[in-house]
Amino acid sequence: MRYVRYLCIAVFAIALISVALANRGLVTLQVLPSEVAGWFAVTPQIQLPLFLVILGSIVAGLLVGFIWEWIREYGERAEKARLARETRRLEREIARLKGEKHQGKDDVLALLDEAG
């Protein structure tokens, strides 16, 4: 199974390298449209190889997706934490009640009663 994973990583790396080599031409990346940039008297633009724009967009999309999913699952994580706290509280209460039940009994009889 480990070799299959390495094979998949190698195929993915070769595909990324081929995309990078095929798209080495420079493109102008404008941060703001020219109409909006005129309002602020700035023209923020940069020239980058196309493969950097493509790969950067993929990475940015993955980050946005991960953050979005993490925020969406907040309710589920909070519910799980609440249930874990409730479980610990109930386990402590069960231990306390068992201790009260066997209070004053012989230790051996209390152990036998707990086991059976």
UniProtKB/TrEMBL annotation:
Q: Which residues form a coiled coil?
A: 80-107
Give every Lipopolysaccharide assembly protein A domain span: 45-94
Q: Membrane: is it a keyword of this entry?
A: yes
Q: Which GO terms describe its cellular component?
A: plasma membrane
The domain of life for this entry's organism is Bacteria
Membrane-spanning ranges: 46-68
Record's keyword terms, sorted: Cell membrane, Coiled coil, Membrane, Transmembrane, Transmembrane helix
Q: What is this protein called?
A: Putative integral membrane protein
**Origin species:** Sulfitobacter noctilucicola
Source organism phylogeny: Bacteria, Pseudomonadati, Pseudomonadota, Alphaproteobacteria, Rhodobacterales
